[in-house]
Amino acid sequence: MTKYTDHLGRPIVAVTGIGVVSSLGQGKEDNWAALTGGRSGIHDITRFPTEDLKTRIAGTVDFLEESTAGAVPLSEKLAALAAEEAIAQSGLPMDDFGGPLFLAAPPVELDWKSRFELDLTTVDEGGPGYELMLASCRKNPNQHFFNTTQFGYISERIADRFGTRGLPITLSTACASGATAIQLGVEAIRRGEADRVLSIGTDGSVSAESLIRFSLLSALSTQNDPAHKAAKPFSKDRDGFVMAEGAGALVMESLESALARGAKILGFLTGCGEKADDFHRTRSKPDGSPAIGAVQAALEDAGLTTGEIDYINAHGTSTPENDKMEYLALSTVFADRIGSIPTSSNKSMIGHTLTAAGAIEAAFSLLTIQTGTLPPTINHDNPDPTILLDVVPNVKREMQVSTVLSSSFGFGGQNTCLVMGAEPVL
After folding, report:
1. Does 128 score more than 60 pLDDT?
2. What are phi and psi of 325, to 5 degrees?
3. Average pLDDT score over the chain
4. Taking burial as the number of CB atoms within 10 A of a residue's CB, which of 74, 120, 303, 342 is the most buried?
């Protein structure tokens, strides 16, 4: 063990760059001011007609020109903006990053606009078949919409733009994806495969189709009026999450590499934990054991006890099922501390950014450590008496924070937890 290795003899992972885009705005400064001010980015949808939809609200990034371009172009733009801010802060070359890329991106398919572009006028009476669609794509001089149906398209574009090294990794672990991208980056540094990594979570997939699909799962809030009051994690009258868009990016380096080039250290990724839950496609195992295991694994990986966590950045989706399960997990692990450890949800303001959520919330967790400001859980006017959390209700709180646990619990039982700190665990 050296001054550059942790309690298990692995390279210490330092954060040297952070980038964020959400419904609250572009960049860390605007996001943090709005988030700690308790302002919501959730609003009525204007991108497409919503008259016949049960849910008519979302946390869309309408301030970007690309917001109406489709899920893949918008997700790419969000990833690029977050990466650019993170790399600029790190002081590394903007076009020759030199480390691997781990990108969490939404599952892709042909957008409706692109489908209408397909020349299917010669289709037989049997209807548009797969081969005919491919043939139409091949003869269409504009191949962009065809490229965007390829799962690795966004990561290839980001890799080309910023000069990352090696095969860019595109991953999808549902709502835990952003945290998984960070975990993969941490593991690459710990194994000695890279001195620096770029981890990004991005999602610009709010559309009529996606709203309908989540509505069919009874997962979305239908409390449309007023929009900014719909997301209410851990409240008794919560009725579902609010879809949102955004991206979070971290530049992470081995501590030795970062100090060698004189980089400013913004915090440390000290622990990662993951557990699978094979109980149901969307529901969590009733006893909460996979979520409990993910939290415990992250703490063990970090070499910390429950008493050493100062703040929990909760997954806090505002669905009846998830919030109940998350409370079960946290109350089991943290036991008698559960009512006293601050535990707030950023999703009350930015909505649920799906594949980007874990990365954005990791960025906010690091900003919490740097500033000593806890973002509130807004709309907490009707507390759930069965959930005894200190959710930092409605108003931010100032306190010294040295360690944060950030939890991400995804559909399909994909659970990832991260521990971040102001200092490494030696």
Report:
1. no
2. -65, -40
3. 91
4. 74
> Is 315 annotated in the active site?
yes
Work out the number of other CB atoms within 10 angstroms of the CB of residue 255. 22
DSSP string, 303-371: T--GGG--EEE------HHHHHHHHHHHHHHHGGGTTTSBEE-THHHH-B-GGGHHHHHHHHHHHHHHH
What pLDDT, on a 0 to 100 scale, did the predictor assign at position 211? Answer: 92
Where would I find the beta strands (DSSP E) of 310-394? Answer: 311-313, 343-344, 373-374
Stated pTM of the model: 0.94
Which of the following is catalytic: 137, 315, 380, 417? 315
pLDDT value at 410 more than 60: yes
**Confidence check: pLDDT of 125 > 60:** no
Amino acid in position 44: D
Q: Which two tokens stand for residue 131?
A: 């081969």
Which of 417, 420, 404 is closest to 176 using CA atoms? Answer: 417
What pLDDT score does 130 carry? 60
In this structure, what token pair is assigned to residue 366? 């690091």
Q: CATH classification of 14-111+148-421, choosing from 3.40.50.300, 3.40.47.10, 3.40.50.2300, 3.40.50.720?
A: 3.40.47.10
**Is 175 a residue of the active site?**
yes
In the chain, domain spans: 14-111+148-421, 113-147
The reported pLDDT for the residue numbered 276 is 86
Q: Are strands 373-374 and 169-171 parallel, antiparallel or unpaired?
A: unpaired
List the catalytic residue out of 137, 272, 352, 380. Answer: 352
Q: Is 352 a catalytic residue?
A: yes
Active-site residue, selected from the candidate residues 175, 272, 380, 417 = 175
